[in-house]
Design goal:
- By secondary structure, the chain is α+β, with helices and mostly antiparallel strands.
- The protein contains 6 helices and 6 strands, in the order ααβββαββααβα.
- The protein has helices spanning 14-26, 30-42, 72-79, 113-129, 132-142, 149-163, and strands at residues 45-50, 53-59, 65-70, 97-98, 101-103, 143-144.
- The strands form 2 sheets. The chain has a 3-stranded antiparallel β-sheet with strand order 1-2-3. A 3-stranded antiparallel β-sheet has the order 4-5-6.
- α1 runs antiparallel to α2, α2 (30-42) crosses α3 and α4 runs antiparallel to α5 (132-142).
- The protein is elongated.
- 5% of the residues are buried.
Amino acid sequence: MNLTAPKSWKDLTQEQLHYVLFLLSAFEDHTVIKTYMFVRFTGIHVISKDRFGWKCFVRVNWGRRKFFTIQAWQIESLLGQMSYIDSYEGMGVRLEDIYGLHAVNIDLHGVSFIDYLNLEKYYQGYLMEKKDKYIELMGTVLYRKRVREKALLKNKYADRVRAI
């Protein structure tokens, strides 16, 4: 049986990244988080716990179930593959969409200077006070409604008409 799971931040899909970030906000213990990740990403379904370990199954060809028992030491050894969640350094990924809002350009192209200054102010405020309100304010700058291309073209042509 071959079970695979993402081995770095960059291997995660957007859906998986959203799930991992949710787990990181919900639980403090990284072993718990890694266990949830392992079970979900490998497709394991836990049935019950007995004296030998956990009875589980995975779906294989045509939805058939393959049953197996996994012991705690086996899980612990496999969780080492998910040690990348212990640090955000070198993360290099972000959520592209959050509740219908889209991330701005990673280099902040298209972000006005005043928004950039506000973003810096919110970041410094968070560093000083450690209050979540500053994180939320940074989110309002970094995630926005997508501007429709038609609206941009309409405004572009409207400017030309005004100039004539």
